[in-house]
Design goal:
The complex is a heterotrimer of chains A (about 170), B (about 425) and C (about 450). Chain B contains 17 helices and four strands. With about 425 residues, chain B is mainly α. In chain B, β3 and β4 form a beta hairpin. In chain C, α9 packs across α10. Chain C is built from 24 helices and two strands. Chain C has a two-stranded antiparallel ribbon with strand order 1-2. The chains are: A alpha+beta (about 170), B mainly alpha (about 425), C mainly alpha (about 450). The interface between B and C is medium-sized, with 32 and 26 residues.
Amino acid sequence: MVDGRQDGNRRAWLLRSLAGAISATVVAVFYPVACFLRPRRATVSGALEVVAPFKVNELPDASGNPFNFGGKPCLVVLTPEGTKRLASGARLRPDDVRAFDAVCTHLQCTVEYRADHDDIFCPCHDGVYDLNGRTVSGPPPRPLEMYKVTLRGAAGKEEVVVSRKS
Amino acid sequence: MDRVDRLYCFLRERLGLDDLQRLASKKRIPIHGSTHFYYFGGMALFLFMIQIVTGILLSLYYKPSPDQAFESVEAIVTEVDFGWLIRSAHSWSANLLIGVLFLHLLTTYLMRAYRRPREITWVTGVMLLGLFMAFGFSGYLLPWNELAFFATRVGTAIVGIVPVIGPQLLLLARGGEEVTGDTLARFYSLHVVVLPLLTFTLLGAHLFLVQKHGMSVPGREAGVHDDRAGSPSMPFVPDFLLRDMVGWYLALALLAALSALFPWELGTKADPFSSAPEGIQPEWYFLFMFQTLKLIPAYIGPFNGEVIGVLFFGMCGLVVLLTPFLDGGRNSRAVLNVLAAIAVAFFIVMTAWGWFSKADQQLWRIVLGALLTTIALFLLVPSTNPKTGARQMLYGFMALAVVVLLAAACWEVLA
Amino acid sequence: MTSLPKHSVARVLVLLALGHAWSAPPSCGQPAAEQIGVLPDDYSCIVCHLKGGTLWTETTPIVDEQALAGDVHWQKGLRCHDCHGGSPTLDAFKNHRDDPTFHSLRPRDKIPGFCGRCHSNIDYMRQYNPSARTDQEQEYWTSGHGRRLKASSEGENPQIDMAVATCVDCHGHHGILAVNDSNSPVYVKHVAETCARCHSDAKLMAGRTYHDRPLGHDQFDQWKLSVHGRAMLEKDDLSAATCNNCHGNHGALPPGVNSVANACGACHGKIAKLFAETQMKHKFEDSGLPGCVTCHGKHDISQPSDEMLGITDGTVCARCHNPGNPQYGATVAGADVARKMRSGLDQLKHEIELAETNMREAERLGMQVRGPRFDLRQAFDALTNARTLVHSFSPGPIEAALGEGLKVTSEVNGAAKGALREYTIRRIWLACSLVPILIVVGLLLYCIRSLPTPTHSG
């Protein structure tokens, strides 16, 4: 036989531990929820619009160029006219910055911009494209796909927003 | 403590907490062989709450356009912290919810809880079940993956079979001739706006009616304890609430385990122009209709087989909805039980058939499916009265499940 | 000699002929009748040379009106006499052979000059195309076809080779289309077929030789299945090499043994450059081996594969660098290099495959590996680059490229494994979350048991 006082103590203990355990589960449930609400890291996946991880004035040798555009590399190129305009402090024209799918149409190597030749070059088989993406020489069978570029932000330090032409 | 007390007093005065307390303390749950059945309603409510919370969370990142739907779900699963968990929980909980609702419907039917004065409660319940199935159907398309896309194409095509208004209905459902981005937008709006509004309204009515009429006691139980003392019962708070909570916590544990062990797969992005992959199937709770429509011959006499099938299921739905008004009273018990047995057997057989005829059928799946059915039925045994038909019916179902198990196994081995 | 009807009668007859053309069923091509209809009424060529013309007989060469109307020359305004000479305003029959102003196409060796009358004359051609080439005829006479034609028409008793190709055999005669017209037989996609009309004809090619080797007749069939032929015919890749890219067009000749690498290098520049700097090139030249063709084949060039490299059976290196039976003075050191290059490529391929498998597994489990997947592209680049560098036939550059690739794959593999580890951690975490849940369940059950037994309500 247990007397009333002991019974009450046990009840109080039971309720306390129950409350504690329930709070623990509530925390366990709401921790993931709170984490879910935290903004995700700034990677954009397959979305139609991606902001390049560099500013216009870092071109042509910006680190992170080509960057990940929905799983494919995207090469951003500042044309010679654009370079001159940038150096003289003039406002860039929309056509001065161009973005291409940086996958060579020959054997899918990643192409690069050659500032000294003003062309886009695939080092694997010496494929050469002009700054409109058209094949100049070498084995590439098709031109590079060109993306739409929008510049935004302070003049001379614009962000490059690349989107797929639809 | 003082402050807490003062706050409590403050709220009690303004919110009328006393009334609520009185109501809660007055509510009692009858105790009898089928008391277990009362858990299903609360369980469904709990799972619905989970759906609301996880659904709201998912909508923070989801983008309902064919360009981005798949990608955004992919991003939720891969990029957002715990996104995989929330998405898996939403999908799993949806399936559990439908399962629990089916059981809730079946047990309510077996207890004849829909009889006077609870007819409207039943009607709202059946309508809620329909709404949740619509939730499932519309939600299935949202990730815009291949399987969902083609299953939706097939599913909406069935709507088009309805005589006279079918074609118009199809246009309305798809938002065009084909399943397109507009369909996705429609289904999204349905899933997150229209259906929740309807559900809240009906659910409010359903719960209000349950409180108003109290818990129904099955006729036979009421008969057993027909004495002055009344039937045995327990208070809702705390006795039944604690028991309910055990159920909820077990559901939570199951959900966590399922989400962790079997993360809901995303599949591949839908390509409207590709040909349909093999093994296109709707969610399991539509499978029995899907399979039946597949089995019906193209023409029955002069009539189109599919039209007959669709009309048949329409009639079935109507019969279920209007059960309280079709019930002939005490004398029709045998008829009612047989009808239920046939319906459940039909559901199980057709679902099993559809499930096992999947292209990637595997022996363990068959065994698992039928085994689970048997176990589930076995668990129901103690809750039935040994002397009544319900127990025998249960044995019947179990035998049926075993037969399905054996038949499917034989088919698999022979084929 | 037959006397012609009076001018007016001829006129009526011409109109009748035109009427016939008008009533012909409308064709889907050029409005032929309309084109012919713009001829002056007194244009007399058609009196004989149009089927159904007044003086037409079974043996008179005829002109297909429809083809003529689509002819690029016709469309530029040239008429019969502009090419053939003679006069279109004759009012009496005159044998062309007696007409000094008539340009004959016979015998066959006159054809190049016939076309060249305009096409070799820049002053004339400039009117139609300021940048037109005028060296085709000159080139032609240097080609295999031209040389043979000339040789066969010279000497005391010329026996002109009637099978040798001249301008009209490739370009057509009445109905010549511009080269960039996709229906032209010399449009880039049709070049091979056009060459094959003769060069796949076993009867025609029988007994013909070039440098004392038989010409053969299976080049087109081989090309069709080659990497170039498939690119052109199946993928519509118009930049793929067809006959004229290696053999030249009007000056068609097989490239010489030592210029093969230059022919291939026209497109495959980097490889040609690498090859030009190797010892292998000189060895090939000394041994009379035809450069690229030695390993890759000529008309039947297939997609190169790593299986070609190394010294195991079936590799191209082993043909010469066979330790047991070296050919052309091939060295054992060379065999060693081949083996090393092959094993390097295989290793990188294996690592890439491993990384792919790991990432697929991680993706299947819903883990984020988009970053590593993107990085893995660099490994592919390195692999392709290394494959190109094989043509330097020295282990240094290829090892550098492979090393870069391997660095990437090891990073990617690390990331993929990290993702898989995280997945395990997730499951453990979830298992842990079950503990408080089950504790709560236990406490609840205990709580329920400690409640007073339910009472019978009053």
